[in-house]
């Protein structure tokens, strides 16, 4: 059976002797790459799933400046889940993500 980490790294299952050549930095980069891909996916959906009014309201609420229209979507997505100790922030983040992926 192929371990899931090798699917993320797009590599073949190494033989026992080849495990030494598998670099640890590759294993650490895989989750970061997946997270960046998720942010990009959500950022692309901001303009299609939210109205212009909803977007502007969210940008104001999350303190995102009006300069740089393209980057505003990515800034919004990056600010989601930023304060896990604030339950209101967690709730709002969950609502935004649910709307972007089509759960509501």
TrEMBL record:
It holds the Pfam family DUF3490. One of its GO terms (molecular function) is microtubule motor activity. GO terms for biological process: microtubule-based movement. Residues 29-104 form the NPK1-activating kinesin-like protein C-terminal domain. It comes from the Eukaryota. GO terms for cellular component: microtubule. Keywords: Microtubule. Signal peptide: none annotated. The keyword Electron transport does not apply. PANTHER family: CENTROMERE PROTEIN E, KINESIN-LIKE PROTEIN KIN-7B. This is NPK1-activating kinesin-like protein C-terminal domain-containing protein. It comes from Anisodus tanguticus. The lineage of its organism: Eukaryota, Viridiplantae, Streptophyta, Embryophyta, Tracheophyta.
């Amino acid at each position: 059976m192929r371990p899931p980490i090798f699917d993320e790294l797009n590599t073949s299952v190494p033989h026992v002797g080849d495990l030494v050549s598998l670099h640890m930095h590759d294993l650490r980069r895989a989750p970061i790459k997946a997270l960046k891909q998720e942010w990009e996916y959500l950022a692309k959906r901001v303009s299609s799933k939210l109205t212009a009014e909803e977007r502007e309201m969210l940008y104001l609420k999350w303190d995102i400046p009006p300069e740089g229209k393209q980057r505003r979507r990515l800034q919004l997505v990056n600010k989601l889940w930023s304060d896990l100790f604030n339950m209101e922030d967690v709730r709002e983040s969950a609502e935004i993500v649910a709307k972007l992926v089509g759960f509501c």
